[in-house]
What does this fold into?
Amino acid sequence: MISQCAEKGWDSMKPEGKYEHLFKCISEICFDYFLSTKTQKLLKVNINNTFSQLIDEVVEERNQEIHERFKEKAEKYISE
It folds into this structure.
């Protein structure tokens, strides 16, 4: 957009053209901001989900290890 303005020459543009150009620039900025904000929100959700999944996996793994140790100790205690 700005390069178009430079090519046409800001001073040679009619006032209507200047307003139209400004509105287009503002619209593009708002749209880009909206997309980047939405993208950031989606990335945050994705990161949160990934960390939650990793935490769940670690907790499950630790629970399994604890269960195995208790089982081994119980078997050893019963055999004595």
Summary: The chain has a mean pLDDT of 85. Residues 59 and 65 are 10 Å apart (CA to CA). The longest helix spans residues 15-79.
